[in-house]
## 1
Amino acid sequence: MDINEFIELESAQERFMNNEDLYKKFLLQFPDRTLYPDLKKSLESEDISGSFEIAHSMKGVVLNLSLNRLGKKICEIVEILRKDALPDASLQKELSDAYEDTIKNINYIKDNNIKLFN
Amino acid sequence: MKKKILIVDDEAINRELLKQIFESDYDIVMANEGREAIEAINKYKNDLVIILLDLMMPVINGYQVLQVLNANDTIKNIPVILITANTDMKIALSCYSLGVADIINKPFVAQIVRQRILNTIEMYKDKHKLKTLLAQSTQKLTEKEQQLELFYDNLIDAISNLVEFRDMNSGMHIKRVKGLTQILAKSYQKLYPDDGLTDDEVNNIVRTSALHDIGKISIPDNILLKPGKLDNNEWEIMKSHTTRGCEILTMLENVQDSHQYKTAYDIVRHHHERYDGNGYPDGLKGDEIPLSAQLVSIVDVYDALVSDRIYKKAYNKDQAYDMIIKGECGVFSDKLIKCFEYTKKVIELFSNTHQ
């Protein structure tokens, strides 16, 4: 697994001022957060403004954690929702894939206690 | 005690990241939504050096917090930096118009955020220092100005009294003329607000009224102090105290600001003019006579009537009042007469207490 494909480690290390414990604390909490399930539910019910709020929050968390692959998708979706539109099914699928992949990777890091910062 | 930084964000990661940047130098206060933020601001407002505010939050959002801080002027004293993932330009501009000091986009780079925030804190510290310095300097200047004005007033009074001492035995005439002019001018402001007589102008008239008879310094003793009636020639010389006063003032022109000089000149020259044109020295008529001179002229007549002079005994106050109202001492404007009637009691009281 190449971690750099889903985490931009360099920017994460810089943002967290080399504090790996703090970074890991938030990274490992991410799979337990309801942001994505909430967004999925909201998108399914076609609630644009509700979806925008959740997506916006999720974007903040994801970018802070430098989860770049997921970050790209969530940014696209935020911009579409900002224009009062709903993302199409294929984009929603891409988001779902990126999310699942990210969770899988985070769990791998957790299970193998992988060192992230230099 | 360390100064405080308030971090307002509904997202724990953001709060922790910002906290980590500043916790070695500042006490960190955290709030996860707007209501909590406003409570913290009220509680710690004297110790807060900066507020780091997220925009999108549940319950009360950052924009609403900004509106509150703007309405109660807190934003002028405590800088607010928006830390937001929202890059909408319109929102950014409206936040600037509500007074935010800076906007930092999320996700941020710790070192850059640290520097920008510390810069803003320093800038506001300097701003407060300058504000305090400016207030202190202004206060000092105001005190100096007041001292100068007092000195200036005393000087005018002293010069005026020097002249008065030649034919009177106290400086009270000057005090009465100033006091009565003030009473009359204030009533003029009240009764005729549309005429636009300002407080500054009243002060100006009152202080320069002291100089009205300054020209008497040039009237020889045998005329000024003559107990009996003056012959025509003597009377002409006596009347010239108005124009001679102006000659004296002309010599002082450079040491006075032009507006006060003009008021003084008007009063000295025209305080014996009468509304029907029968006064001197220029025979001005009606409102050709400056209001300053009209005010002083009626006051001067009244004080002359109710005082002992070398050539006459004092009339009692009621007699003096009637003589003026009936036009026996020359014609004054209806407005001035109204003011005189309106202030009769106060004028009498002031005269009685300044003998």
## 2
Amino acid sequence: MNVLSQAWGWLTTSANWSGTDGIPTRFLQHFEYSVEAVLIGALIAFPLGLLTGHVKRGGLVVTSLANVARALPTLGLVVLLVVVMGVKFRAVMIPLVALTVPPILLNTYEGVRNVDPQLTDAAKGMGLRPWQVLWRAEVPAALPLILTGFQFAAVNAVANTAIAAYSSFGGLGRFVIDGLATTDYGMVAGGAFLIVIAAILNLVFFAVLRKLLISPGLRQKKPTT
Amino acid sequence: MRSAGLFPHIPSYLGTYGSLIQQQLTMALLSVLFGLIAALPIALLCVRYPKIYPAVVGLLTVIYSLPSIALFVLLVPSTGLTQTTVIIPLSVYSLAALVPNIVEGIRGIPEDVRLAAIAMGYTGARRLVAVDLPLAVPPIMAGLRVATVGNVSMVSVGTVIGVGAFGALFTAAAQLSRSDLAVTGIVVIVALALACDLLLVVAQRLLTPWNKRRSA
């Protein structure tokens, strides 16, 4: 119970809850960086996924890209860009975004590509234009998988933001890295628990989003990681 | 500095490229192996008792979303600054990638095939080993590939607690401001991961000779 008591001791020290390196500030930073990474990643990946899925082409490129991205070590990318570009927001944001693109791209592609052709044919038969078929039939039907893609992207973003703290970046990873540097294990464990809480809140958010957005006529489809 | 290019001179305290590669692969592949050993019985239970499956998947999703850096440092008091501390979380991540694929793989076996196997006298464990698992090889391999590629890369995060194998190049790159070390680390890790991936693809071809004719 040493870990728990040390973490608890650190978490309940009121001094740790205020200031620019306090828990609320770091929590908000973590949230902000993760959301930004997912949104920028989505701007790139979502249209590409819709396009490749709609025309049912480019699958090999999309899946290979996802595979290579999974092999990319976040820590290495962060260190490389910071060494080359200096400690800049952009230097850390690039690797974070790079690792949110593949899950959104892959799942959007797979989701849209695998929509039941009867559904799209019916939509076409009703006189919908191609982009109306996409928005009114394909996207709603593919939504379970699309949301799974966004969820994986967000999971990556939360985890990688924590790792990015290794190079003087903000967020909750700061506590882990600084705690290790100053051998303050209470801070390390407290920070790790906060990261775990952030990860779980992220999942809760997506569970709620799924309840709200997915048409009740659709059942959960198998995710593609 | 004797060598240049892809394999720059590395600080001597890191050891050699060979030893770093060996550590990286040992930790990554042992994690996949432990994950697979644990995943099989869990998946079989989920096939037998479908009611527990959604809860198991939910739990695995939660575990999978927990960042490795947090799990590593939380384990340090129990398992120390050792390879075990890195292997345990990565094994659990592998489990999360494998269980759903094994379950879907076995569930996806066509009913007529299952009935034919039963009619031929395959029951219990023999049917599992001789019929069910071989037919479920493609989805199981898909899970193994995701787990392996991810693990080979994620081992490097262990360097924050001093057991990162190739990740040590990133720590050194940051401390010495040497981009060449970071590039080498990234290139070698991606190459190792994709090489393992390729081996699994080849293994799958060899394990499922019947698929070649069908897909060709």
